[in-house]
Amino acid sequence: xxxxxxxxxxxxxxxxxxxxxxxxxxxxxxxxxxxxxxxxxxxxxxxxxxxxxxxxxxxxxxxxxxxxxxxxxxxxxxxxxxxxxxxxxxxxxxxxxxxxxxxxxxxxxxxxxxxxxxxxxxxxxxxxxxxxxxxxxxxxxxxxxxxxxxxxxxxxxxxxxxxxxxxxxxxxxxxxxxxxxxxxxxxxxxxxxxxxxxxxxxxxxxxxxxxxxxxxxxxxxxxxxxxxxxxxxxxxxxxxxxxxxxxxx
Amino acid sequence: xxxxxxxxxxxxxxxxxxxxxxxxxxxxxxxxxxxxxxxxxxxxxxxxxxxxxxxxxxxxxxxxxxxxxxxxxxxxxxxxxxxxxxxxxxxxxxxxxxxxxxxxxxxxxxxxxxxxxxxxxxxxxxxxxxxxxxxxxxxxxxxxxxxxxxxxxxxxxxxxxxxxxxxxxxxxxxxxxxxxxxxxxxxxxxxxxxxxxxxxxxxxxxxxxxxxxxxxxxxxxxxxxxxxxxxxxxxxxxxxxx
Lengths: 249, 242
Ligand SMILES: Nc1ncnc2c1ncn2[C@@H]1O[C@H](COP(=O)(O)OP(=O)(O)OP(=O)(O)O)[C@@H](O)[C@H]1O
Ligand SMILES: [Mg+2]
Hints:
The complex is a heterodimer. Chain A is built from nine helices and two strands; from the N terminus they run ααβαααβαααα. Chain A is mainly alpha-helical. Chain A has a two-stranded parallel ribbon. In chain A, helix 3 (50-83) runs parallel beside helix 6 (141-172) and helix 6 (141-172) packs antiparallel against helix 8. Chain A starts with a helix and ends in a 5-residue tail after the last helix. The model of chain A has no long low-confidence stretch (mean pLDDT 92). Chain B is of the alpha/beta class. Chain B contains nine helices and eleven strands. In chain B, helix 3 packs across helix 4 (111-121). Chain B is globular. Classes of the chains: A mainly alpha, B alpha/beta. The A-B interface holds A 3-4, 6-7, 10-11, 13-15, 80, 84-95, 245, 247-248 and B 49, 52-56, 73-74, 77-78, 80, 82, 84-94, 97, 100-102, 104-107, 130, 146. Bound molecules: adenosine-5'-triphosphate (ATP) and magnesium ion.
């Protein structure tokens, strides 16, 4: 397995993917910072707090932005093997289809967590920069760590709810269908996230679980978690079944 | 142990739109070069994909070294080298990096192996050019390097001469002949170019519309026909190819 992961890493060489990926992590941190700074300088003069920076980021990341970006990442790392025609060279080595796909899924999980951790670091740095000019409350180490854990957990739940899009990528061998699906699902997130049934909707539930807002809803934690886990396993199982019987074109 | 390196028994592949390969039974002997001939769409690539386990036969059996391929891929495939249609590589990586990836997946990372393979096909080792900047023939050469890198006993090559210049073709031909004659390797090669096959192969199999029309040694063909092209035209009843 470490060989497969090592190869995934080599495949990124001379590619624009790492740069584009890095740039994409900047979008939400910059957005929430600008939002907080404007609020501070507005008439109401709301103070900037580390808590609200992270809280806003988690909302935008988990409900809207990260699912879409991660779907594109996933479709790219899997779809390229189809478009580049490399599968025939890999399967005839032979590398088993199951371990190959596990390698991809694991790599995708690593990308997801990296995405969240880089975002965490960028928000921290942006808060640090702002703190040089305007006061940022709650700028303390316990809060850094508190949100580090939250972002990490968010990454795990994001990964879990993303596996169906891996299936869609394999099924359609492209990124158009999974991307349209995730846009639709994220828009439903926006509509649902305040409703009492949001806990049953795995993509909203991830966010509610991480931010501890689920308790205010009418769905028990255990049920939300089981729904997310079921979606995750279903996504992996269908991907495996589909990939195993795939005919290499 | 069977006397054949590759043997197929009634190999059949049916797609929704019809049969691509029908009841194909071919026999490739050890240390020989076997040319698989057929017009466009005859089923050459489909057959080779089944021989490599890339697609599942609808019916029939593939035996390699006397053992069924299905279920024994782990033992059989590491001893086989192959090119199927256009070679697939990562466009953002150099030739060396590409080969390095496949060597890593094989579990044999050795700079000499990669360097030697590139040497044989005439590509520079450690070149900065990435695969997407390669010309058609250079891509094909890299595909050949990948196929021979692990010193396989059996080569399955789908139109390996595609895109090569005349000198490249001659070099590849003499290299393949050498593998066969001096090292006892077995080669199954498909090609459009009959003149090429007539210089390279020991045995030929002619397929048309997925059906094997004839299988015999090239020497025998020449006892009753002037050229392979004449023979091919007569057997397939067509205008010939290439
Ligand atoms: N994935 C597929 N689905 C449906 N039909 C297919 C598929 N792949 C191949 N075929 C059909 O199978 C037949 C044989 O195709 P194949 O690629 O094996 O021909 P070939 O002998 O390699 O031809 P060429 O010389 O052009 O490479 C063709 O009629 C083709 O249309
Ligand atoms: Mg073909």
